[in-house]
């Protein structure tokens, strides 16, 4: 440890403190879910490099694909050449796992870069300027992506002015729902209520959706609004799963007004949640629903025609750690009339080695049944955590949530409320911070008391000391 400390001190002398470090270790190698350090320690890597190593560290098939491609050609620049072999292979594999309506792909190097391009495309495709993002969302650190990032002020403070035209709506946060509506509280997969079924098509107290409608009526008229960008499961903002009907309601609203629905699948995509894409837990696969009514202001028949997203952003898990990100969009929205040659690009986008890694990753996920595995291991993890929570004093773990292997714990207390129509309902709380009605229901809602600041950080540190790499997230956790 002494020698490693010395090496790290040397590195940190050249590293700006702005690059946060969660663990002071020097990595030597990784295999599967294990990481080995230069001082001979071994860590169980729950962080998976912030949701990146979807096939585990150094999966042999990915290593082999990279090794082979590195010896053929590494940089076959996307503007210089029409295509290269791994790109052809990757497009083929992407088309098998992406929603069929999103049939045009653009490859970039990072999630942030893909988000920036998504915003550009949305503005060009609709001829509108504004974008609606959600409280607690994280979409990246480049200036464009930062303009729609709201998970912590630390990401934004001092870096403005950011691109304008962004309006922020509340994301449903059922555990914190001030309205104490029965739908939120009885349906929420909490420690106290594990196993209860969520109602199939509910919008919890309706607060966040009402707020979104209000935003369109007050701050950003539909005719000015290009896109809504949303994480299907809020990642950095605290691993929040939306209530069952929320994404479909957002879709419906977007379709009604000709607004593009962009799902940011950087964290929740590439199989991590047990489906290829996180939004598939809540939105129809396509073709099942017709949106847009007779009084619809949607003049673009392409938008939302099949009930799925209009654009999907991927990165992280798609290439097992090689820098590859991208977006998939309805082809009709990126025609040459809207985005002529030269408007999209980048030196390294679609790098041949990264494409080979991504193609191999999709193969491995399919061949080894990793979607089903994420579902099974996730259920095992949540059950284990619930058993631990049951042994702990009340008031420590308030919630265990997520889908598949995108799992979070929220620390804090829950106590039973009293009235059947919403104990403590102040009539204006709603989920998130929006104005919302109190739901009426029959189950007794419970009150949530947050843990003191720093509890999650202390626990992740303690886990690190015991050989487990965990990360903290959430709007209150820096
Ligand atoms: N979107 C989401 C949902 C993310 O979680 C992240 C990164 N944590 C990004 C975008 C940005 O990705 P990158 O760090 O690759 O730029």
Main features:
478 residues, alpha/beta, Aspartate Aminotransferase, domain 2, four-stranded mixed β-sheet, 29% helix, binds 4'-deoxy-4'-aminopyridoxal-5'-phosphate
Q: CATH H level of one domain: which superfamily?
A: Type I PLP-dependent aspartate aminotransferase-like (Major domain)
Which range best describes the helical content: under 10%, 10-25%, 25-40%, 40-55%, 55-70% or over 70%?
A: 25-40%
Strand order across the biggest sheet?
4-10-9-8-7-5-6
Mean pLDDT: 86
- CATH C-level of one domain: Alpha Beta
Are there runs of 5+ residues with pLDDT below 50, and where? Answer: 186-202, 286-295, 418-444
Q: Radius of gyration from the CA trace? A: 22 Å
Fold blueprint:
Layout: H1 2-12, E1 27-31, E2 34-37, E3 42-45, H2 48-51, H3 60-70, H4 85-97, E4 104-108, H5 111-126, E5 130-134, H6 143-147, E6 166-169, H7 182-187, H8 207-218, E7 225-230, H9 246-257, E8 260-264, E9 311-314, E10 325-329, H10 352-367, H11 370-391, E11 397-403, E12 406-416, E13 446-450, H12 455-465, E14 468-469
Parallel strand pairs: 3-14, 5-6, 5-7, 7-8, 8-9
Antiparallel strand pairs: 1-2, 2-3, 4-10, 9-10, 11-12, 12-13
Cofactor: pyridoxal 5'-phosphate
Family: Belongs to the class-III pyridoxal-phosphate-dependent aminotransferase family.
Keywords: Aminotransferase, Pyridoxal phosphate, Transferase
Structure description:
The protein is α/β, with parallel strands linked by helices. It has twelve helices and 14 strands. It has helices spanning 2-12, 48-51, 60-70, 85-97, 111-126, 143-147, 182-187, 207-218, 246-257, 352-367, 370-391, 455-465, and strands at 27-31, 34-37, 42-45, 104-108, 130-134, 166-169, 225-230, 260-264, 311-314, 325-329, 397-403, 406-416, 446-450, 468-469. Helix 3 packs antiparallel against helix 10 (352-367) and helix 4 (85-97) runs parallel beside helix 10. The two termini are 27 Å apart. The structure holds 4'-deoxy-4'-aminopyridoxal-5'-phosphate. 4'-deoxy-4'-aminopyridoxal-5'-phosphate (PMP) binds next to helix 5. 4'-deoxy-4'-aminopyridoxal-5'-phosphate binds at residues 50, 110-112, 115, 138-140, 231, 235-236, 264, 266-267, 315, 325.
């Amino acid at each position: 440890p002494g020698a490693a400390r010395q090496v790290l001190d040397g590195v940190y002398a050249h590293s700006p403190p702005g690059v946060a470090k969660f663990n002071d270790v020097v990595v030597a190698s990784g295999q599967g879910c294990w990481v080995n350090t230069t001082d001979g320690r071994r860590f169980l890597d729950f962080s998976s490099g912030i949701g990146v190593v979807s096939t585990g560290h150094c999966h042999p098939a990915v290593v082999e694909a990279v090794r082979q491609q590195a010896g053929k050609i590494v940089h076959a620049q996307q503007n210089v050449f029409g295509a290269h072999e791994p790109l052809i292979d990757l497009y083929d594999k992407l088309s098998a796992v992406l929603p069929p309506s999103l049939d045009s792909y653009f490859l970039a190097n990072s999630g942030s870069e893909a988000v920036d391009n998504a915003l550009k495309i949305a503005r060009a495709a609709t001829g509108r300027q504004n974008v609606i993002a959600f409280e607690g969302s994280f979409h990246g650190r480049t200036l464009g992506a930062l303009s729609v990032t709201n998970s912590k002020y630390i990401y934004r403070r001092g870096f403005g002015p950011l691109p304008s035209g962004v309006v922020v709506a509340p994301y449903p946060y059922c555990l914190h729902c001030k309205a104490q509506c029965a739908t939120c509280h009885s349906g929420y997969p909490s420690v106290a209520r594990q196993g209860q079924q969520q109602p199939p098509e509910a919008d919890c107290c309706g607060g966040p959706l009402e707020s979104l409608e209000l935003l369109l009526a007050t701050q950003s008229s539909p005719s000015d609004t290009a896109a809504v960008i949303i994480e299907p499961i809020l990642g950095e903002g605290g691993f929040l799963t939306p209530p069952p009907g929320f994404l479909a309601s957002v879709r419906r609203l977007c379709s009604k007004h000709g607004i593009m629905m962009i799902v940011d699948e950087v964290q929740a995509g590439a199989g991590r949640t047990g489906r290829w894409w996180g939004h598939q837990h809540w939105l129809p696969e396509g073709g099942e629903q017709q949106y847009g009514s007779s009084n619809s202001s949607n003049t673009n028949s392409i938008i939302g025609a099949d009930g799925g997203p209009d654009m999907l952003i991927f990165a992280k898990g798609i290439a097992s750690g090689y820098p590859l990100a991208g977006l998939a969009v309805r082809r009709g929205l990126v025609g040459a009339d809207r985005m002529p040659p030269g408007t999209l690009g980048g030196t390294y986008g679609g790098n041949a080695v990264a494409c080979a890694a991504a193609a191999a990753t999709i193969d491995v996920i399919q061949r080894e049944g990793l979607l089903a595995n994420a579902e099974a291991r996730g259920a095992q993890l949540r059950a284990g955590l619930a058993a631990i929570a049951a042994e702990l004093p009340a008031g420590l773990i308030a919630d265990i949530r997520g889908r598949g292997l995108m799992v979070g714990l929220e620390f804090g207390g829950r106590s039973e409320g009293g009235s059947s129509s919403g104990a403590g309902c102040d009539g204006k709380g709603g989920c998130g911070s929006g104005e919302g009605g109190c739901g009426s229901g029959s189950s007794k809602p419970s009150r949530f008391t947050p843990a003191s600041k720093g509890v999650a950080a202390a626990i992740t540190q303690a886990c690190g000391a015991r050989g487990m790499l965990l990360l903290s997230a959430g709007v209150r956790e820096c």
